[in-house]
From TrEMBL:
<dbReference type="GO" id="GO:0004300">
    <property type="term" value="F:enoyl-CoA hydratase activity"/>
</dbReference>
<comment type="similarity">
    <text>In the N-terminal section; belongs to the enoyl-CoA hydratase/isomerase family.</text>
</comment>
<keyword id="KW-0511">Multifunctional enzyme</keyword>
<dbReference type="InterPro" id="IPR001753">
    <property type="entry name" value="Enoyl-CoA_hydra/iso"/>
</dbReference>
<keyword id="KW-0576">Peroxisome</keyword>
<comment type="similarity">
    <text>In the central section; belongs to the 3-hydroxyacyl-CoA dehydrogenase family.</text>
</comment>
<dbReference type="GO" id="GO:0070403">
    <property type="term" value="F:NAD+ binding"/>
</dbReference>
<feature type="domain" description="3-hydroxyacyl-CoA dehydrogenase C-terminal">
    <location>
        <begin position="502"/>
        <end position="595"/>
    </location>
</feature>
<keyword id="KW-0520">NAD</keyword>
<protein>
    <recommendedName>
        <fullName>3-hydroxyacyl-CoA dehydrogenase</fullName>
    </recommendedName>
</protein>
<comment type="subunit">
    <text>Monomer.</text>
</comment>
<keyword id="KW-0560">Oxidoreductase</keyword>
<dbReference type="InterPro" id="IPR008927">
    <property type="entry name" value="6-PGluconate_DH-like_C_sf"/>
</dbReference>
<keyword id="KW-0443">Lipid metabolism</keyword>
<dbReference type="GO" id="GO:0006635">
    <property type="term" value="P:fatty acid beta-oxidation"/>
</dbReference>
<feature type="domain" description="3-hydroxyacyl-CoA dehydrogenase NAD binding">
    <location>
        <begin position="321"/>
        <end position="500"/>
    </location>
</feature>
<dbReference type="GO" id="GO:0008692">
    <property type="term" value="F:3-hydroxybutyryl-CoA epimerase activity"/>
</dbReference>
Amino acid sequence: MIPVCKRLCAMAIKTVMMEVGGDKVAIMTINNPPVNSLSNAVHNGLYKCFKEAQERNDIKAIVITGADGKFCGGADIRNFQKKQNAEDESEKSIIAPRNLFNNVIEACEKPVVAAIEGFALGGGLELAMVCHARVASEGTELGLPELQLGIIPGLGGTQRLPRLIGLDKALDMLLTSRSISAETGREYGLVDVVTHSSDVLETSRRQALAMVHPRKSWLIALHRMDKVGNSDNFLKTLTNARAKAKRKFRNVRYPFVCLDVVEEGLCKGGEIGTELETKACRALVNTFEARALMHIFFSQRSTSKVFYASTPGLKARAVKNVAVVGCGLMGSGIAATLVAHNIPVLVKDISSTVLENGLKMIKENLEGLVKKGKMTELQARDALALVKTTESYKGFESLDLVVESVHEDLPLKQRIFHELESVCSINCILASNTSALKIAAIGAKLSFQDRMAGTHFFSPPHVMQLLEIVHADQTSAQTVMDLLSLAKTLNKVPLIVKDVPGFAANRLFVPYLMFSTFLVDLGLDPYHIDAVIKDFGMPMGPFRVADFTGIRTFQLVSQTFLVNSPKSFHKSPLIELLLKDGREGIVAKKGFYNYGNVNHGEEAAELKRYLEASRQIAQVRGEYNNVENLLDTDIIEMIFFGVANEACKVIKDDAVTGPTALDVASVFGMGFPSYRGGIIFWADSKGPVYILNRLKEWWREYGSIYKPSSLLEKCAAMNTPLGRIVSRPPSKL
Ligand SMILES: C[C@H](O)CC(=O)SCCNC(=O)CCNC(=O)[C@H](O)C(C)(C)COP(=O)(O)OP(=O)(O)OC[C@H]1O[C@@H](n2cnc3c(N)ncnc32)[C@H](O)[C@@H]1OP(=O)(O)O
């Protein structure tokens, strides 16, 4: 250990601290909890510390690190939001610390090493890249996720990353926002040394001192070109990347701005590149997409945080052993999700044949994750080894959680939970994956209902990010807390919802399909609707998604609406006509589309017959009956204003904590484009008054399915955005 002079630098400031060791290495520690983000105070702190370090003869080298084992989570996103909301136009520019990065840190005459632990993301990785070497602890997360926020890196990331790891790999990281581990970073040349976290600081010191003497020269990332090749090569790579981006990104500009800036910098030099990058990043911060994506970033985090805040002192218990009862499509997907995150699963079903089939589906799900690059083949094999199957309740006594996933049959579910209560320990959480029944009804006969909850996964569970945690009246805070913690382990976005029919996400999803089928009964072509909605930004149109989730499932979940609010529901005859002929969707290889042997699906010529029959029965009339009058924007509004109207009813019913929860539900549960900020955020961009007027128009014409909700009327009357409706803590749900 090197003796450290405990004297803090004369200019000691709270957010960046400097300690100088007996070895003459200055350690600068960023201390800005919770993620050591780069606030203005951090920039100023670094400026001051660097100035002092440059001047002092007793400092030979510098190491930058972050407090609490976290290097830096990037620029302070709250700061961007403040600028977006600034009234004064001049306030909208972001102060760029480009000078600090390029001219102070990178140009420093004393070697600077980044000692990285935990994560270096966005501006955090950009800071690490201006250092002259990087030492990272095992498993550290490195990435430039700015595109996920609707902006591009603004502190040289678009320029230095390609120069350090090559253009192909850099573009992949930039355009996917995917992080890499320190180990992969070492392989790519982004990290110089990977070591154990207890050794990061010492190794960084040694690395820095080695660079003081001419034993190891240091390279300035911005000046390098050795990894990007000649202009023919990099221009070709960029052309391919643009073509790929065109297929992947719809309706947004920021990925293309990113590619342009990379190209400019490679053609005109890194200095010009960083200047253009800063300007482009500043301009993007104020776009609707950046507002929307930053809103989603914070909303996604707030849905569970609010619960922790309302139950101080409670600590989550780890869920280490789980059983899934029922291994159909959903059960096997849930089991795959659990084992993919190293949680052993006991799968129970009624016969060895069903179990064999379930195991096959679990294997296929894991293979799907391998194909998507979410896990390696070896990890998938290890995960599969964590699955055990059983036809009995043997082994259930030592479980932490059971997820029931049998079909929607109340007496059957009640019987299963009764049996579970007699075999599971008192601490085991009993959860149902029902989407149509009330949790309280399923657990009505249990002696201890506090450990009963809903875990509503979305299809396919190993892919969809949302997990609704259904909180019945009797469910304990401890149970919800444990499930929230499990959601984090599974990398899911948890949403606490009340035990009301349809919970939250299906209250949006079912009307989405319902308004789409209504338009078909009005005379519109379903394939045209699918195309318009896909262009709007949904991953697939409503009819294709109905095929994927199963048309019978749609019919089943619709029952809740038909029972609870029949006047707001258009029951299209089309659904029953299709089901009568076995057109159940992809499981039957035919639904709205025909699937042959592939999952892509082709338009079905014979669908016309069903459409005509359905229209004949439905007899929907209206001014727009000549459907050619309908513009694509009308189609979008007639579907999504209907969904937004239902969202207002969900808020009114107190089914969720507030409007933000529905933005999260729509983005992560039904694929609403995140760059539109979720259903409520998007609706607010149109304004409650405009939506109300349009709904009234359709209400007059087509009847009560378009009847405006009282909450929408209220917001329109006060001209208040729907997003401003006050949220309530989940304990009050
Ligand atoms: C100019 C530059 O190029 C532009 C940029 O750098 S833009 C920023 C780029 N950086 C990012 O996108 C990283 C965003 N953050 C993350 O991915 C994750 O928070 C993380 C991996 C750093 C930590 O994850 P985890 O430990 O699970 O904590 P998480 O719950 O996500 O965050 C903890 C808190 O920090 C906040 N936070 C995280 N990153 C933040 C950031 N960059 N700015 C402001 N707040 C941030 C979260 O909102 C949360 O706040 P809360 O407790 O009040 O809800």
